[in-house]
Design goal:
This protein is 67% helix and 1% strand. The chain is mainly alpha-helical.
Length: 337
């Protein structure tokens, strides 16, 4: 069991106790400590990754739920959107925020290094037991030295001529037997503790051999969870074009007002053409010219303008009674020549 000469292993394993550097448990513990250092580092990095992934996926979910800007082809469409706003998100109408949250939780949970954390707990227990084993070895080594010292005194007395019932020899022999009994107890204690520690370290190292396959499994679960996050996002996003819904009352009112405006503008142009005489030109030689009938320019009549304005007013009143009270639709005054 490697119970050779004593030597401090404080620099090797970080122990304060003195142990046997040649024992199987000491070497196994040393190699497990190297693995523990790397596992502890990875666990720390995985937790940072979990927090980052959780924050990133939350940001993605918020982005997908953000309203998508619309494209308005006309001013009337923009005015309609102000009166009756509709919301289309970046992800589209089939996006499920609840499904995205569940998928995100599955992803972050699958990344949890549970097996590695469990192994680290068992490692700490093994380290504590190793320190106790080192203490037992120190007690065993001390008992061996005591026995050797007692035997040395006994042999020294015998070489000096002491024999038989010599009181000093009898006392020396009694001390030797006492030290030997303590050595036997220390040896048995160390044997029991060493076997228990060996079994503990064997189990710890066997579990360490499953960390690789466990990481592979966790990565597979993370990939499936991330695919679920992807599937929660529709393949087609929201539509940027303003929906061309059936004409609403407010749209009909806008169309009526636009028609009335056009009628007024046509009337004003016609009145200008009638009231302005043609520019005078120098008299020319009288040449007989065949008379050609000239088509008269159609002029919007006042009844046409009035009808259009009346229709616009009725449409506005019907669509927005409260707003129409504050709106004045003025009829154009007749221009004077």
């Amino acid at each position: 069991m490697g119970c050779g000469g004593s030597k401090s292993v404080g620099q090797t394993l970080g122990f304060k106790a003195v142990g046997d550097p040649k024992s199987r448990c000491t070497l196994m513990m040393k190699e497990a400590t190297l693995l523990q250092t790397n596992i502890k580092l990875v666990v720390k990095e995985v937790k940072v990754f979990q927090a980052t992934a959780d924050k990133t996926l939350d940001g993605i979910k918020q982005l997908l739920a953000t309203p998508l800007p619309k494209i308005y082809e006309t001013d009337d469409a923009a005015a309609e959107a102000l009166l009756h706003p509709t919301v289309a998100t970046i992800a589209g109408e089939n996006f499920s925020a609840e499904a995205a949250v569940k998928a995100k939780e599955a992803f972050t949970n699958s990344a949890a290094p549970r097996q590695m954390e469990t192994w680290l707990v068992k490692y700490e227990e093994a380290m504590f037991k190793q320190k106790l084993l080192n203490k037992s070895f120190d007690e065993l080594h001390h008992a061996r030295n005591k026995v050797a010292s007692a035997r040395g005194k006994e042999e020294s007395l015998r070489r000096g001529g002491a024999a038989g019932e010599d009181p000093k020899l009898v006392e020396a022999m009694r001390v030797v037997q006492l030290m030997q009994d303590k050595l036997n107890i220390a040896t048995e204690n160390y044997r029991v503790e060493e076997e228990a520690q060996y079994t503990r370290l064997v189990n710890l190292i066997n579990e360490a051999s499953t960390i690789g396959p466990s990481i592979r499994e966790r990565l597979g679960e993370m990939a499936n969870a991330l695919a679920s996050v992807r599937d929660a996002v529709p393949s087609e996003g929201g539509a940027p074009m303003a929906a061309s819904a059936p004409v609403s009352p407010s749209s009909a009112a806008g169309a009526a007002v636009a028609a009335a405006r056009e009628a007024v503008q046509a009337s004003q142009v016609a009145s200008t053409q009638v009231s302005s005489p043609p520019a005078s030109s120098p008299p020319a030689a009288a040449t007989p010219v065949a008379s050609t009938p000239v088509a008269s320019t159609p002029v919007a009549s006042s009844p046409t303008i009035a009808s259009a304005m009346a229709a616009a007013k009725e449409s506005v009143l019907a669509a927005h009674p409260a707003e129409a009270r504050e709106t004045v639709i003025a009829t154009p005054s007749k221009r004077t020549a």
